[in-house]
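stage 2 :: seqdesign
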């Protein structure tokens, strides 16, 4: 019996978190294949990359998408192979035989003194046969159920390929967002460095004029060095994030990518939680794939039971036979065979139990997946709402911290405060900037997670990210 059951190839939603540079995640969706030379990637030139461009390249070259397509083609081959058992088999052959027989070698010899004689060697003789043979399995319920099961398995593999595309869209979007966020962190760090440089120069001038103590200059210089370290660290992280994004979409690791899209804060509208849950139930391709796998397993069980049913085969042949092609005549035969299985050592019982166990497992995994899908949608909305609140709070804190720094610098210039107050205010600004960037990135990623959770990432993720 040929059992055609596909395991659930559903990527874990939680494991597809943001592809941060420096992460040690592995798996097919974290890599890509090399594009052909005709792809036209410019050498030694920066590549301007929009989100749409990144998604298109990811869908074409990401390893997860490529492997899922190969799985689909593999399932298609299994369908063709199982269908062959239901179709006629036609073959032809040509046989030319020249034979000479030594009768003595086979023990044919007369006793001594016998008055009879016969030749000791027969031949050589010639025999020619050109024949076409046709066989057809007319009634075989096991082969029919196996074919039906393989078709459902192929449908499941095709849906898994669609699900893989959804995952690629989510992962590439997450990588793109991380590069954008890190670029903003680099800009913020450079801005803080410029501020630290100005404060240090102010402290140096006041110290030279005898208006402040040396500790104020030293303290501002320490802050200046701290900001330089932050710029260096953020620039390194930015470069690593671009390498990670390049690996997702088929660019060489050393490619200089320039991201052209800016994704500011925009609240998610026109998609409520109940609507999202309904969309997920109707559109998630991994759910549809799991359903197809359950049906394939059910048909595999029926195929196992069908091993006990009789089968009917018919066949026939027609050909020319004779001494040679010029001295031959037509000959044919027709056969019909009914086979009744009686006892095969318990083989069919074992196949039934194996197929039934696979069916129960598929059903359990499908039930769990249904619950997991709703949980993923609800989790994505919780993250979205929390991130939206955090953006508002971070924006307010950012403005307050900048005002605090301006007042601290004024107080230091007036001689009513030292650099402790200024450095603390500058650290508050730096922290507020980092929080704002992180919350904005988290909000955009949460919107991408919603698109992925409802099974519509490839269709709506651009709209959700750019919604105003």
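stage 2 :: out
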């Amino acid at each position: 019996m040929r059992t055609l059951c596909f395991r659930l190839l559903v990527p874990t939603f939680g494991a597809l978190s943001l592809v941060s540079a420096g992460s040690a995640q592995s798996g097919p969706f974290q890599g890509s294949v090399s594009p052909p030379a005709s792809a036209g990637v410019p050498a030694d030139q920066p590549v301007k990359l929009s989100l749409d461009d990144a998604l298109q390249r990811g869908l074409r070259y990401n390893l997860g998408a490529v492997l899922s397509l190969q799985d689909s083609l593999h399932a298609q081959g299994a369908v063709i192979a199982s269908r062959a058992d239901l179709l006629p088999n036609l073959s032809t052959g040509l046989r030319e035989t020249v034979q000479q027989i030594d009768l003595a070698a086979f023990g044919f010899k007369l006793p001594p003194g016998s008055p009879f004689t016969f030749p000791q060697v027969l031949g050589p003789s010639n025999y020619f046969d050109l024949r076409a043979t046709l066989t057809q399995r007319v009634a075989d319920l096991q082969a029919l159920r196996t074919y039906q099961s393989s078709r459902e398995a192929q449908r499941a593999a095709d849906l898994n390929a669609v699900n893989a595309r959804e995952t690629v869209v989510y992962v590439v979007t997450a990588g793109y967002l991380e590069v954008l966020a890190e670029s903003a962190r680099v800009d913020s760090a450079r801005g803080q460095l410029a501020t630290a440089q100005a404060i240090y120069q102010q402290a140096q001038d006041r110290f030279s004029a005898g208006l402040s103590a040396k500790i104020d200059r030293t303290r501002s210089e320490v802050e200046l060095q701290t900001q330089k370290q932050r710029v260096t660290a953020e620039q390194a992280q930015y470069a690593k994030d671009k390498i990670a994004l390049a690996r997702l979409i088929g660019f060489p690791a050393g490619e200089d990518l320039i991201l052209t899209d800016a994704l500011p804060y925009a609240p998610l509208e026109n998609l409520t939680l109940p609507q999202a849950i309904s969309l997920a139930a109707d559109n998630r391709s991994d759910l549809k794939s799991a359903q197809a796998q359950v049906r394939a397993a059910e048909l595999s069980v029926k195929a196992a039971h069908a091993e006990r049913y009789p089968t009917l085969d018919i066949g026939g042949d027609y050909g020319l036979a004779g001494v040679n092609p010029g001295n031959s005549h037509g000959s044919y035969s027709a056969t019909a065979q009914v086979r009744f299985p009686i006892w095969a050592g318990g083989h069919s019982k074992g196949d039934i139990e194996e197929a039934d166990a696979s069916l129960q497992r598929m059903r359990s995994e499908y039930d769990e997946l249904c619950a997991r899908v709703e949980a993923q949608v609800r989790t994505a909305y919780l993250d979205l709402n929390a991130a939206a609140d955090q953006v508002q709070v971070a924006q307010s804190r950012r403005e307050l911290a900048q005002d605090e720094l301006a007042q601290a610098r004024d107080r230091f210039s007036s001689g009513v405060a030292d650099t402790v107050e200024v450095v603390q205010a500058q650290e508050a600004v730096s922290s507020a900037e980092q929080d704002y960037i992180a919350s904005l990135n988290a909000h955009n990623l949460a919107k991408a997670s919603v698109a992925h959770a409802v099974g519509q990432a490839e269709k709506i993720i651009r709209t959700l990210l750019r919604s105003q």
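stage 3 :: structure notes
- The chain has one domain: 42-107+120-466.
- The beta strands are 47-49, 89-102, 121-139, 257-259, 311-324, 327-339.
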